[in-house]
């Protein structure tokens, strides 16, 4: 039994018999602080700890790294002077990580097996890892498997996880290995927490956003949300947005949306006499709420302004650079997942797309709605949807792309949204794989000039619009890019509203200010 001194943990390591290689980079003494975000990972010495076990440098006969049991007390924020056998060197360049212990490189072999050799793999990407913030912590993903997934949707991205699940014989597994990413949220699997050796010798500032996960928001002009960070340091927290054309953040952590796009929201504290300096960040994606016709998307470079809703389970639609958008629920339990379009202000729409499927399972559903509002509804089921699945052509055999034909709707109420709904049971006989690409929507946008909708008349004019209504109500005014320009309360009768020159959508009615 070996004892290690911790600042806030008591760590007792029962090391199994094996040969351990020392590392020159870690001198055998120092303070390791918890890493809170993937963007904090830089070249240095690290420990990987999950479920009270540390990953050691003992390479087992099962081609995995052996865990060392820990006895933990305290707040689990830092540790001091661990054994060299539990410390791995991370070499980071351009976002790619090489993990070593002594001269041995932690790489990927196949299946759930590591390579652990002093010579590099012939394919360098098998020895490379990328860090990404996940729901349960920082995921270390193998680059070879990321690339394989890009060309083969059935492939699994492999992450370093601790497997403590019960196997077929009833015994409990006990190994750190490269397991499928889907296991990161499965029972019996654990995402390692990373601890980095402090170069300054000072404890971590423990800087973190109260909700530091990546966020997606739907654009509404002037909309705000709170995103504060916390720290034990006395240094002030400095907030920043990498793209202030998309969103800004003030000194109190209040984020204001400016336009659709993507930005990195960050918080930082400077080092002081008591704590290390630190920086944390997350990605904020702001989507358009409204698009105009004609509209097209193949989903191969992302989901665009479409919304992903996992109503049941944690399966989500995923963009694939070769195939489009993919939904597959095998091995993921019961799933109900929606892919919902941005709104379209149109009186007529003609929709086409291509679909592909394989494996057994429920058919994909195609639906249309005139009242779904993602700004006020968290679940598409809260809206009224009409099932139009039968109006499209679908694959009659597995593994064959099929064009939908033209799905036409006239005399529509705006805003119009369409959705694909996937249902799966998680088993081989009830979890088909579906793919969609080459979606095109054409039709007639709402007429310009004076227009009427639901007893409201909107009159275009010079420097203003005039809204005539038979009742008092709240209206929203959007630009043609989907940005909300104004949300205001109108009264019964005439309501002049001053606006800059441009084309606007007023509660689904198009108007021009000149």
TrEMBL record:
InterPro entries recorded: Big_2, DUF5017, Invasin/intimin_cell_adhesion
Pfam family, one: Big_2
Presence of keyword Signal: yes
Annotated signal peptide: 1-24
Annotated keywords: Signal
Domain DUF5017: residue ranges: 346-442
Ranges of residues in domain BIG2: 230-275
Superkingdom, taxonomy of origin: Bacteria
Keyword Signal applies: yes
Gene3D superfamilies: 2.60.40.1080
SUPFAM superfamilies given in the database record: Invasin/intimin cell-adhesion fragments (SSF49373)
Protein name in UniProt: DUF5017 domain-containing protein
Organism: Barnesiella viscericola
């Amino acid at each position: 039994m070996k004892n290690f001194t911790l600042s806030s943990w008591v760590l007792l390591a029962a090391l199994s018999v094996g040969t351990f290689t020392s590392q020159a980079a870690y001198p055998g003494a120092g303070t390791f602080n918890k890493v809170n975000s993937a963007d904090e990972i830089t070249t240095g010495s690290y420990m990987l700890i999950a479920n009270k076990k540390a990953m050691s440098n003992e390479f087992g006969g099962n081609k995995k790294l052996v865990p060392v049991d820990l006895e933990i007390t305290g707040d689990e924020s830092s540790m001091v002077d661990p054994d060299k056998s539990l410390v791995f060197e991370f070499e980071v360049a351009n976002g790619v990580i090489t993990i070593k212990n002594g001269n041995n490189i932690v790489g990927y072999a196949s299946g759930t097996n590591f390579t652990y050799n002093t010579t590099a793999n012939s394919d360098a990407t098998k020895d490379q890892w990328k860090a990404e913030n996940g729901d349960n912590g920082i995921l270390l993903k193998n680059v070879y498997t990321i690339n394989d997934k890009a060309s083969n949707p059935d492939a699994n991205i492999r992450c370093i996880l601790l497997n403590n699940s019960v196997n077929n014989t009833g015994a409990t597994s006990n190994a750190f290995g490269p397991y499928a990413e889907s296991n990161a949220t499965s029972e019996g699997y654990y995402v390692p927490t990373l601890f980095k050796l402090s170069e300054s010798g000072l404890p971590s500032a423990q800087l973190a956003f109260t909700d530091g996960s990546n966020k997606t928001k739907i654009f509404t002009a002037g909309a705000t949300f709170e995103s504060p960070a916390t720290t034990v340091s006395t240094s002030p927290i400095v907030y920043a947005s990498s793209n202030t054309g998309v969103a800004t953040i003030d000194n109190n952590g209040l984020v204001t949306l400016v336009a659709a796009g993507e930005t990195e929201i960050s918080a930082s504290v400077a080092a002081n006499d008591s704590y290390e300096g630190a920086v944390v960040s997350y990605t904020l994606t702001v989507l358009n709420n409204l698009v105009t016709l004609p509209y097209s998307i193949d989903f191969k470079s992302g989901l665009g302004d479409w919304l992903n809703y996992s109503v049941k389970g944690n399966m989500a639609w995923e963009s694939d650079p070769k195939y489009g958008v993919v939904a597959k629920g095998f091995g993921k339990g019961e799933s109900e997942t929606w892919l919902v379009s941005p709104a379209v202000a149109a009186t007529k729409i003609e929709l086409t797309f291509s679909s592909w499927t394989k494996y057994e399972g429920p058919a994909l559903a195609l639906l249309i709605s005139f009242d779904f509002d993602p700004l006020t509804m968290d679940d598409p089921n809260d809206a009224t949807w009409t099932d139009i699945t039968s109006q499209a052509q679908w694959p009659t055999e597995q593994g064959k792309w099929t064009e939908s034909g033209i799905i036409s709707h006239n005399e529509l109420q705006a805003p119009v949204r369409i959705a694909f709904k996937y249902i799966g049971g998680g088993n081989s006989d009830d979890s088909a794989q579906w793919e969609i690409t080459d979606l095109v929507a054409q039709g007639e946008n709402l007429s310009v000039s004076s227009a009427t909708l639901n007893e409201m008349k909107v009159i275009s004019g010079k420097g203003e619009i005039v809204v005539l209504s038979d009742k008092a109500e709240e209206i929203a005014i959007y630009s043609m890019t989907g940005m909300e320009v104004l949300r205001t309360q109108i009264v019964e009768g005439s309501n002049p509203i001053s606006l800059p020159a441009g084309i606007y959508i007023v509660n689904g009615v198009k108007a021009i200010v000149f």
